[in-house]
Amino acid sequence: MKFVAAYLLAVLAGNNDPSVEDLKTILESVGAETDSEKMEHLLSQVSGKDITELIAAGREKFASVPCGGGGVAVAAAAPAAAGGAAPAAEKKEEKVEEKEESDDDMGFSLFD
User: Fold this and answer.
1) Helices 2-12 and 20-29: angle between axes, nearest 10 degrees
2) Secondary structure percentages of the chain, helix, strand, coil, to 5
3) What role does it play (predicted)?
4) How confident is the prediction along the chain (112 residues), in pLDDT tens digits per residue?
5) Quick check: 10 and 29 in contact, CB under 8 A?
6) Residue pair 17/25 in contact by the 8 Å Cβ criterion
7) Which of 48, 44, 61 is nearest to 16 (CA)?
C-alpha cells in the first residue's frame, strides 16, 4: 500500500511517469522501507495508464467487496421481527429492573 501511496504522491506532484528512484525518494523521506522488486512490479502494472482511469477501476472493484457487519445486523433483526427473540429481550429487561429495585431497598443514595 505504501508503494501505491508513493506512486500517487509522485503523480499528484506532476510526475506522470515516476520511476523506482522517484518512489524510493518519497518513501525514504518518511523513513519507510523500500523494495525495488515490488515497486518495479507496481510500475509495470500502471505504466501507460491514466491515473483517473486506474482510480475509477479501483472504485468499481472496491464497491464489490463486502465490508462491515451489515449482514449480521440484518440477520439478527429478522428473527426479532418474527417474534422469536422478542420475549427473551423482555425477560432480560425485567431482570435488570428487578436488580435496580433491589439496590433501592438498601437505602443507599449518592445524593442524600
Assistant:
1) 100
2) 70, 0, 30
3) Plays an important role in the elongation step of protein synthesis.
4) 899 999 999 999 999 899 999 999 999 999 999 999 999 999 999 988 898 998 899 888 888 888 776 555 555 555 555 555 555 555 555 555 555 555 555 666 666 5
5) no
6) no
7) 48
Q: Count the helices and strands in the chain (H runs, E runs).
A: 6, 0
The conformation of residue 64, written as its DSSP 8-state character, comes to: T
111, containing H or E segment: none
Whole-number Å distance between alpha carbons of 13 and 24: 15
Report which DSSP code applies to 53: H
Give the orientation angle of helix 36-46 with respect to helix 20-29, to 10 degrees.
120
* Rounded CA separation 25/34 (Å): 10
pLDDT of residue 61: 87
Q: How many domains does the chain have?
A: 1
Q: Is residue 104 part of a domain?
A: no
Total residue length of the chain: 112
At 54 the three-state DSSP class reads helix
Considering the domain boundaries, does residue 94 fall inside one? no
